[in-house]
Amino acid sequence: MNQNVQNNNQIMPKFEILNQFIKDLSFEAPNSPKIFFDKIEDKPNMEINLEVKSTPVNENLFEIVLHIKVKNSVKENVLFFIDLSYGAMVVLHEKDEEVRKNILLKSVPAHIFPFVRSLIAELTKESGFMPLVLQPIDFNVLQAQPIPQNNQNPQPANENK
Length: 161
Description:
By secondary structure, the chain is of the alpha+beta class. It is elongated, with a radius of gyration of 19 Å. It has a single domain (15-139), classed as Roll (Bacterial Protein-export protein SecB), CATH 3.10.420. The longest helix is centred in the last third of the chain and has 30 residues, at 97-126. The protein contains 2 helices and 5 strands; from the N terminus they run E-E-E-E-H-H-E. It has helices spanning 97-126, 139-142; strands at 15-28, 45-56, 61-74, 77-92, 157-158. It is 21% helix and 36% strand. A hairpin with a 2-residue loop joins strand 3 and strand 4.
């Protein structure tokens, strides 16, 4: 019998997200309110760094954290800086180690990223800036290559801790 099928012939998911949470959040606009009144002629430079961490709590329970840093600046003037750690508690029902690793570092981050994206857009909007809407990320290729963000240069890194 397939390990993902329960006795009552219902398909059991390979994982369950028990809850999602903001683990840590920092927003800084060190040059405000001055930056709202300065005429900015140069194109802002956006730096985006993304990291995925997986921490076991017990054999089948894991904490997954997306840690994202966003720095928006013009020349040497920082417009804003965001440092966000967004987590999820996940139960795995899969025994195969390679499948477990893919779930923890690819599937779960793909499921929780839209919440991170929305949070960052709302945070920048409520801080007086244009909403920063991050482009979707394909976590299947994240480990293999950097993901461009509107002609910017993010520096992704993945870890399994």
